[in-house]
Amino acid sequence: MTQKELAVGICTQATISNIEKAGKVPAITLLLAIADRLDIDIDKLCYLMSENTSKNGKIMKKVKVLCSQSNHKEAAVMLKRNQ
């Protein structure tokens, strides 16, 4: 899934890009829509985004790399696998 495909009906591709690059948490409505599109539990996504543990840090680094490579499906799989 590309950034453009992820963004359809939710936000702009540029917004997805900015979230990926800056690592900032988007508005809750946008976060909910993205989590829904990726079929990721919102609580788990928020937990992983806020935790600063070694394991979660490594997972989130990998997820960010995958997202920066437009590999959102694999990023979603990784997040689900670590729920």
From TrEMBL:
GO molecular function: DNA binding
UniProt cross-references to Pfam families, sorted A to Z: HTH_3
Matches recorded under InterPro entries: Cro/C1-type_HTH, Lambda_DNA-bd_dom_sf, TPR-like_helical_dom_sf
Domain HTH cro/C1-type residues, every copy: 1-45
Domain of life: Bacteria
Name under which the protein is recorded: Helix-turn-helix transcriptional regulator
Organism whose genome encodes this protein: Carnobacterium maltaromaticum (Carnobacterium piscicola)
